[in-house]
Design brief:
By secondary structure, the chain is mainly alpha-helical. The chain is built from three helices and no strands. Helix content is 61%, strand content 0%.
Amino acid sequence: MSFLAEILEKIPLLSDTPAQFASPASLWLVSGIYLALLLLGLALNGIVGLRLLLVPGALRGQVTHWRRGVE
């Protein structure tokens, strides 16, 4: 058996045994990772959106340096 296959067998989420995959700890882990990535994406989207709203000329692409607003 290959080295990678041995590692994958030790990870409960990637095991092909249904009882291990459906364990509450595994589901909480997957849900937590998904939620963290979702919140990170929303935060980054909010930062970019605020920059476009608050920096004069940003929506028209006229800002080359966002701190000074130099055109």
